[in-house]
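FW: tagging you since you asked about this chain on Friday. Here's the raw sequence from the shared folder, copied in full. Didn't touch anything.
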Amino acid sequence: MVKITYIEHSGQEHVVDAQPGLTVMEVAVKAGIPGIDADCGGACACATCHVYVDPAFKTQTGEPSAMEESMLDFASERQDSSRLSCQIGITEELDGMKVTMPEFQG
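HL: got it, structure written out here
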């Protein structure tokens, strides 16, 4: 299993064992992590699963697609490390990754 740490805007941390093959969003929803709304269910059609990826894992998560970039335009508080968690597939290389949620989604 891969350990992912989800950090709420308040600073509360949730360490979750994630199964490779799922997305960072799917793992958060299944674990009941607050702060990831996932309104579109992972179809890259909204920005309600917006997270800030630990810069140490930028290479491992890859670059956002053109579609993800256009959805991130709707994200509040977008930063250089912003990604949609539905677009980050869990792999062994992400073991130890931290993602932080913005104060508001969408």
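FW: The chain has a mean pLDDT of 95.
HL: agreed, and The domain at 2-100 is CATH 3.10.20.30 (Ubiquitin-like (UB roll)).
FW: great, closing this out.
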